[in-house]
Amino acid sequence: MTPFLYKVAETFYVHYREDVSRLAFVFSNRRAGLFFKKYLAQVAGKPLFVPRVYTINDLLVSISSFRLADKTEMLFSIYELYQQLSHSAESFDKFAFWGEMLLNDFDDVDKYLVDAKKLFTNIKELKEIDEKFLYLTPEQLAAIRRFWVHFMEGGDNEKKRNFAAVWEILFPLYSAFKEKLASQGLAYEGMIFREIAEKARKKEDLLLPAPRLIFVGLNVLTLAEETILKYVKGLGIADFYWDYASPFVCDPANKASFFVARNRTLFPSQYEIEEENSSIPEIELIGLPSSVGQAKQVYDLLEKWMDEGVIPHPDRAIDTAVVLPDEHLLLPVLHSLPPEIDPVNITMGYLLMHTPVSGLIDLLFELQKQVRFVKGEPAFYHRTVSALLAHQYVSQVNKDYTLRLLQEIRRYNKIFIPLSDLSGTPLFRCIFRIVVTPDEASNYIMEVLESLQASLKETEEESSVSAQSFDREYLYHYYVLVKRLKEVMAQHSVSMELNTFFQLLGKMAAGVSVPFQGEPLAGLQVMGVLETRSLDFDNLIILSMNEGIFPLSKAANSFIPYNLRKGFGLSTHEHQDSIYAY
């Protein structure tokens, strides 16, 4: 089967030859762009100036007048504005969770070009719905009506009053927040999407990177994206290609087909790309009881495919991919690959929250929460102390001393360990001390991470250089994260509890990936689900095909109720299901 991206590359080289370098190609993910350039080189068969390649997000950011704002800094900024507008004394600790929801909601509102003033209006009487929302479809009006009928019938209670009070200030907050960001030349992603879409609606010139844009392999489009694509199509400078050859995708009963007909109708292709008759592939379902079992099964399948000649060249296994819906399995899978499979390409990165350093930070927080004073001296809870001493980073430093200390704690059955018993090494003196404020905590964590970096470098053994280099990379990225949070806190006079500080750190770690180095266009491909879009492989191993993992069952946190989201055309869980089904 000829890969979809190969056919696109072939089509454009045939029509443009060397002038293909004057085009810009836009994909749904970066890996698709890499494969496209590889196929274009194969088709050309000679050195060639490659065209510019973007994801659609990167393209819009590149032509915007704004720079992307830091999400943590935005959380502090929106809190300050919320305090001013609501005259509330609500602490940052209580605000932080739903403040993140607001940032996500504002992002959605702009990506779907929703009239924020009308969305965040308070309906006093049902007849207002028909008067205010004449432009909506009957289905959208019905969804909005369902929400407000339910809200009005619920009687008067504190939760309703709180919701109504916050709902009333959301539009002023949304407007003030955007104004503040714009004054600094900053924007969140949705704000950038809206800026470009509104320019497109007004038919203003856009600073496009090439005289012609080719959109390849997109699927679910926000209203802002759709508006921009319609604009460049109307200018006659855009072309569109859809990866809809699979029989599954075109089945109306399959959620993956949700946007197929609409996209093909609105954005047809200029050149015909022949769709091969795709047969349903051979699929084997394997039930396994554990994550370790799944990682071992990857090894067994790859060994079997090498023996059977399915993978004839283990050093060039680029036609085989391992897909990880659950990113926790990345390291177990990497450690389970047959040694013959080399090189391996991992572009998904590894979330910092899944690394051992995140576990260490959690233990440091537990240590601080459980401090007691015994006979006037600080003392730490034995279970947390033992867990810290046994942590893979700490236990590698002064191994004999650490082991003796652990044995002593167990032998004497100590419940709280006095500080004086935990001061035997420089690293222990760094770890076992008391911090009270977030500023002290940030310095504390940075010093612990620096000390561990130095200690790991000293204890590095030749046999474990690779593992140690990973560990030092994790420590470095977490250090940068803590330093960034410390800088943001210094810029905003916002007080918070230690608990909130550590929660913020955890959320920041959930958004940072530690990059892995690999040869992107050679070897076995290891990737996340969304990276597979537009790509074709002869052999696929997809792990964790369990309910709740594929697709993720986690409900999107939103301050905007479901019926209002549906009524105003915002994304809902049906959109997410369609994305993963595709």
UniProtKB/TrEMBL annotation:
Highest taxon above the source species: Bacteria
InterPro entries: P-loop_NTPase (IPR027417)
UniProt-recorded name of the protein: PD-(D/E)XK nuclease family protein
Organism: Candidatus Gallibacteroides avistercoris
The organism's taxonomic lineage, starting at the top: Bacteria, Pseudomonadati, Bacteroidota, Bacteroidia, Bacteroidales
